[in-house]
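U., I forgot to send this yesterday:
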Amino acid sequence: MPSTDPSSPTEPSEPSEPSEPPEGKAAVSPNPNPKPGPVSGPKPGPKSTSTPNPKAPAPARSRKGVVIGALVAVAALLAGWLSQYAVGGDTTAPRAGGDSGSATAEERSDNTAAGNPALLKLARRTADDPFARGAEDAPVVLIEYADFGCSFCGKFARDTEPKLVRKYVDKGLLRIEWRNFPVFGEGSERAALAGYAAGRQGRFWQFYDAVYADKGNEKNAFEGGHLRELAEQAGVPDLDRFDRDRASEAARKLLEKDRTEAYGLGAAATPAFLVNGQPIAGAQPDEVFTDAIERAAAAAEKSGKRPDGPSGESSDGKPDGQSDGQSGPRGDQD
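Result:
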């Protein structure tokens, strides 16, 4: 889930000053020379024990406690996502595979590089998926949760991803799967729907490159005319179909499915990544991704297991050792 265009945290409110007595009225102090006199008030009697009014409203403090408890729960969820990686490319923070306690490098690789089994299952490995590139049975899957209006997503797309494609995807070691995670409002949602429409004509990755190539698209309103221009740049052949597809219920359904998946993981900003189930938050330096990919590949090789497809069989539907070797749809490289 990262540095990734997070919203500024709210500042705590200042503590209130002690209240002063109302203007024109002095604070009451004891009389230093009291004079004897009759004692006013009720006569002494047996002490009674006061009981609270059963109709009194519950203190506001209890309601405040519930809200604070909910916020603490959310913070804990996000901490689980961000615990191993720095946010926003902070190279001074611990890297994946960096020193942690007394564990050796080999132990850390064995314990973490194999990935969380539940998160590993999020890889779709669907045949002919227009929103993925790389072999279906690649030993490592990088899932990217991103927003077309996110500046740090653009940085990853321009500076890091082309290197990963050349070094790992083209060699069959890595598969990259896209997930829509629009967090910057309606413009980002429109761009996500347009990406779906471009993918319907086999031009998603070209659309992806066209959007991120122009830094002017960061937090763009992505109005209809501009999206058609981007689709034309991406080589989408039928722009009328493009308009119909981006307005379809299927486009909206996939967007919501991807976004729900990201929020369910505790991601709160973009970009966020899973590398064989291991999280990376933010547009990190290249070596953070290469280290994670190579450790995951080594762990997969050591386990001797091929990645499973959705049905639990080999992802290409063939016996182990047999594969057509073809990659999914692939876009232009920078």
